[in-house]
Amino acid sequence: MDSSTATKSREIAAEIPTVVRVYKDGSVERLRESSFVPPSLDHPQLTVSSKDTLMSHQPSISARLYLPNPTPNKKLPILLYFHGGGFLFESAFSQAYHSHFNCFVSQVDVLVVSVEYRLAPEHPLPAAYHDCWASLQWLANHYSSPNPTNMDPWLINHGDFSRVFLGGDSAGGNIVHNILMRAGTETLPGSVKVLGAFLSHPFFYGSQPIGSEQAIIATPDYMLKVWNLAYPGAPGGIDCPMINPMADGAPCLAGIGCSKLLIRVAGKDKLRDRGLSYYDSVKNSGWLGELDLYEETQEDHVYHINNPQSHTAHNFIKRLASFLLG
C-alpha cells in the first residue's frame, strides 16, 4: 500500500466530536471511554465479588456479575443492567461501571448482571436490543431449565427469580424501555416475569423540541448525529418509537411488561424533559403498575456513574435499595 492509499484509508468517514470517530477503512476510534478493569473474585478484603461470564457465542454476549461478599444466606433480587454510552461506547467491563457496582453492591444485597452488548457503529441497532433481550432469556433459562446453556452457578445458587429487575442509564435506560415493551408481549422461559425496572436519565428524543430543549440550540443536532450513527436505518428516524416512545403511532405504554417502574431524571441534564415526558406518558397510558419519579435537581447526566462516591449518588443508592428490596 503506497502512502496516498494509506492516508485515504485513514480519512474520517463520520465523527461525533469527543465521542467517536469512524474511518473510511472501517476502523472506529472511541474518544470517550474509561479503561477496562478485571473482575475481583473472592478477594478476602473486598465486600463485593465479581466475575465475567459468557451468555452467548453467536452473537458474542457476555456480562460481569457482582455479588455481596460474604454472600448472605438467602436468595437475592437479580438486577439485569444495561450500561450507557449512546449505543456507541462504554462497557460493562469499564472502570466507571466496575467502580459504580462495587459501591452499589457493597450497600445493597442484590445480584447484579451487567451486560456487555454489541456496540454501534460496527453493530448498528437493533443489535444491542437483540443482545439485551437474549440476555434476559439467558437469565430466565436458569430458572426454567435444569441445564441452561452457558449456566452460571451464582444465578442458580443465589438468585431469586421472583424478583427480577431491569436497570440502565442513558442509552441503557432506553434499552430498558424497549426490553420492557417486548416483555409485555412475549413470554420468557419458565414464564419468568420482570418485577420492576428503573430508567436513569434515559436517552429519548424526537424531532419536535420540548420544554427546555427549545433554548438549547446545539442539542438536537448532537442527538440526531448519535442516533443516526447508532441506527442508520431506523424506521421514522429520530421519531422511531425506540428513541421516541411518545411519537405518533408508537406502541401504547400501557403494555410495559413489569409491575414497578422508577424513572430518574437530573435537573441539569439535557435529557431531563424527555424523562419527565416519558413519566407523564406512562402515568396517563392506563398502565396498571406502580410508577415513581426521582429527581436530583442539582446534578447532571449520569452523575452517579461519573462520581459513585458522591453524596447524591449515595442518596440514590438508598432510594434504589428500597425499590429493589421493598
Q: Give the number of DSSP strands.
A: 11
Task: Give the DSSP E fraction (strand runs of 2 or more residues).
Answer: 15-25%
**Unreliable spans:** 1-7
Categorize the overall geometry: globular
Helix fraction by DSSP (H/I, runs of at least 4): 25-40%
Average pLDDT, all residues: 94
Largest sheet: 8 strands, mixed
Structural class: alpha/beta
SSE order, one letter for each helix or strand: HEEEEEEHEHHEHEHEHEHH
Output the number of helix runs: 9
Q: Biggest sheet: strands side by side, in what order? A: 4-5-7-6-8-9-10-11
Kindly, what is the distance between the CA atoms of the first and last residues, rounded to a whole number of angstroms? 63 Å
Radius of gyration: 20 Å
Domain Alpha/beta hydrolase fold-3: 79-304
Protein name: Alpha/beta hydrolase fold-3 domain-containing protein
Organism: Stylosanthes scabra
Family: Belongs to the 'GDXG' lipolytic enzyme family.
